[in-house]
Design a protein that fits this description.
Elements: H1 3-10, E1 29-33, E2 36-39, H2 40-53, H3 62-88, H4 95-109, H5 113-122, H6 127-148, H7 156-165, E3 173-185, H8 191-209, H9 214-221, E4 232-237, H10 243-250, E5 261-263, E6 266-279, H11 284-313, E7 317-319
Antiparallel strand pairs: 1-2, 1-7, 3-4, 3-6, 5-6
Length: 321
């Protein structure tokens, strides 16, 4: 997935949302934070989403999974502390402010609504969860400003220095793929159902390989963006996609179809409709605004991490993992 959207999604990879567990999942408390609870189902969902962002994580290894779970749980504890403090200080963000932040993401990265929905979906999130994530990020920025009694300001000199050391920040030519997508969400969180879901996706792929029209199959089966348009989400660069999907797309030519790919939230089948080389250069104003936003979030994150560690040292936190 593209570096820009990752920064806006996570602001330095820190703000993914939990998905509620299904009713048949046996749940238990894994942490208590000043009286607020974090459940095992929430932790497991977050771990799966984080794993989808990194092909290097091997959650089938018990030791590796335990390390990831503890790291993610620590992050969730810190987020809970921040949310409690935001409530105490009555810090709120309006719907219009969330709308403007999302509009900025689309504008800076030149994403359509369908492309943004697809990128959000790759993370195992719904658009409603993504909006809530953006709201939390805006609240965090205001919280940092309130706590430190000063605004976080990025100077023009800082922007100049960044552009000088990162000449590609203004964009560069790269290949873009016009993609059509069939997305089949998991029917439940159990491993047995995942296997059944994959078999269903494989059946669709076999029909495509026998000559069935991709657009017709997408309209009939896909639960992803642009399903009514045959799954056509337009042109995207490979580095704007999740790692497994990116690897599959890079190996395809026009009119070729990917194998079934398991990602966060479900299975994907992709078809490359066209490939073209596109200049992604930004105007000077766009480039500076983009860099300023990235530097701003880096500074907010640095301040937040310093502050929340101190807050955690004074809080009641009971880890039960």
């Amino acid at each position: 997935m593209c570096r820009c959207i990752r920064i806006m999604f996570l602001f330095s990879c820190m703000t993914l949302l939990a998905v509620h567990a299904s009713a048949n999942t046996l749940d238990r408390i894994v942490a208590v934070v000043n009286g607020d609870l974090i459940l095992l189902s929430e932790l497991q969902s977050r771990v799966e989403v984080v794993a989808s962002e990194s092909s290097e994580l091997n959650l089938s290894n018990p030791v590796a999974r335990e390390q990831v779970e503890r790291a993610v749980l620590n992050q969730m504890v810190q987020e809970q502390l921040a949310e409690q403090e935001a409530r105490r200080l009555n810090i709120k963000v309006s719907e219009s402010e969330v709308n403007e932040a999302i509009a900025s993401i689309k504008r800076e990265n030149r994403f359509t609504d369908d492309q943004l929905e697809y990128l959000v979906q790759q993370q195992g999130l719904t658009m409603a969860q993504f909006r809530q994530d953006i709201r939390r990020q805006l609240e965090r920025s205001r919280l940092v400003d309130r706590v430190f009694k000063s605004k976080t300001v990025i100077t023009e000199d800082q922007v100049d220095a960044y552009l000088k050391s990162h000449p590609r920040a203004a964009g560069a030519a790269r290949e873009k793929y016009r993609l059509a997508v069939i997305f089949l969400p998991f029917s439940s969180n159990s491993q047995d159902s995942h296997a059944q879901d994959r078999a269903a996706a494989q059946s669709i792929l076999e029909r495509l390989n026998r000559g069935q029209d991709f657009a017709v199959m997408a309209a009939q089966y896909s639960k992803g963006p642009a399903a009514d348009e045959g799954g056509d989400i337009g042109y995207m660069a490979a580095d704007e996609l999740a790692p497994d999907i990116s690897a599959a797309v890079r190996g395809l030519g026009p009119n070729e179809v990917s194998p079934v790919i398991e990602g966060a939230g479900g299975h994907y089948i992709l078809k490359v409709l066209d490939v073209r080389r596109e200049e992604m250069s930004l105007s000077q104003v766009e480039a500076r605004e983009k860099v300023k936003r990235e530097l701003f979030q880096q500074e907010v994150t640095r301040k937040f991490e310093d502050w929340v560690r101190d807050l955690e040292s004074r809080a009641f936190v009971d880890i039960r993992l």
